[in-house]
Amino acid sequence: MRAVLHIGTEKTGSSSLQAYLSRGAGELARSGVHCCSSAGHGNNRALAAAFMDPGESDDYTRLHGLDDEAARASWRAAFLEAFAAEVANCRADVFVISSEHFHSRLLEPAQVAGLAAFLAPLFDDIQVRVYLRRQDELALSFYSQKLRAGFIPPTILPIANVRRPRRSPPPYFDFEALLGRWADAFGEVAVHPCLYDRGVLHGGDVVSDFCQFAGLPLLDLALPEPVNTALSAPAQAALLRFNECCAGDRESRDRHRPTRDALAAYLQAHGTGASVLPPRAEAEEFYAAFAAGNAAVARRWFGRDRLFPEDFSRYPETPAPVDWERAADLLAGFAASRVEPAC
Predict the structure, then answer these.
(1) Between the CA of residue 103 and those of 52, 155, 235, 318, what are the distances in Å?
(2) Where are the beta strands (DSSP E) in the chain?
(3) Structural contact between residues 5 and 83, judged by C-beta atoms closer than 8 angstroms
(4) Fewest Cβ atoms nearer than 10 Å: which of 107, 194, 303, 316?
(5) What span, in angstroms and rounded, lies between the C-alpha atoms of 63 and 260?
(6) Which residues pair with 97 in a beta bridge?
(7) Partners of 6 in the β-ladder
(8) pLDDT band at 19 (very low <50, low <70, confident <90, very high)
(9) What is the chain's mean pLDDT, rounded?
(10) Mean local confidence (pLDDT), 141-159
């Protein structure tokens, strides 16, 4: 049986692809395609979590009570056994695994190597699909994601991370290192990167492209509207202000999560418009930190000199002022929506 492993990256349409796989699982099964379920429906995040270092913690491990070393070890053993049983009992031609958290959580070669060693005996062939988005654009989406998670980013782009001397690029954005560790673990011929670009993707979107790559039928399914799309600049300012008012440790962020999630949903519905953008010079500086790695990826994986188009004209010369009045209106509207009407 052939496995197709979709590893992200984050912010490249993974939610839409996973919604497609989840909603179409029954019909896909009739075509000889099995969508992994033991690792979670849609996003098979448990498989990525199983190969994180035991001492690492994130929202998934906290939610499932896995930050205790003994609990983590017990859960991991039981989960891997269940995953192997799912594969053994599967009568499909293709086994599909998808999680963007393979990109964001397995940042060390040993972690990916451990995953490969576990999967290799279970499948006749494993192919890895990964979508790459230009680093500054990825960082802009990541900014909104950090706000939704309750953090207070000091800047729109994590520019401080690329200004530190004698430091390698941040691993989250380092595509040369990403592809290198997956190629080392699974073999270079098994790794298939693609640019997250409508002009490059088969059919113009990730769902169509992945189906074409993996040999899946393209079903006529009604998919939900994209979630976690970028917020408008005033909406981002409103969420930033909320986070500042609730500033604290991880426990504080977790405690305020229900209200923050409700606010983010309200802002998504009512705060339409363009997202905040940093000045052009800052975007170019951030992107330049990855020039050498991107060039190496372009040569090794795409047979050319340049990985991404390098047009930065969308960025302003100077950043636009924050519309705090509109941000305040959005916060007031959200507060009003939470008040139960009088009888």
Answers:
(1) 12, 23, 28, 33
(2) 2-6, 33-35, 94-98, 125-132, 191-195
(3) no
(4) 303
(5) 17
(6) 5
(7) 98, 129
(8) very high
(9) 93
(10) 91
The span from the CA of 108 to the CA of 168, in Å, is 14
| Cis amide leading into 9 (omega within 30) | yes
Copy the structure tokens of residue 332.
């007031």
The DSSP string of 56-125 is: ---HHHHHTT--SHHHHHHHHHHHHHHHHHHHHT---SEEEEE-THHHHH--SHHHHHHHHHHHGGG-SE
Q: What is the pLDDT of residue 226?
A: 60
User: What's the pLDDT band for 340 if we cut at 50, 70, 90?
Assistant: low
Mapped onto helix, strand or coil, the DSSP state of residue 268 is helix
Tokens of 221: 């399914």
Classify burial at 70, counting beta carbons within 10 Å of its beta carbon; exposed 0-12, middle 13-18, buried 19 or more.
Answer: exposed
pLDDT score, position 337: 92
Q: Which residue do the tokens 């595509």 mark?
A: 175
Domain ranges across the chain: 2-134+171-214, 233-274+313-337
Q: Which residues, other chains included, contact 299 with Cβ-Cβ below 8 Å and sequence gap of 6+?
A: 305
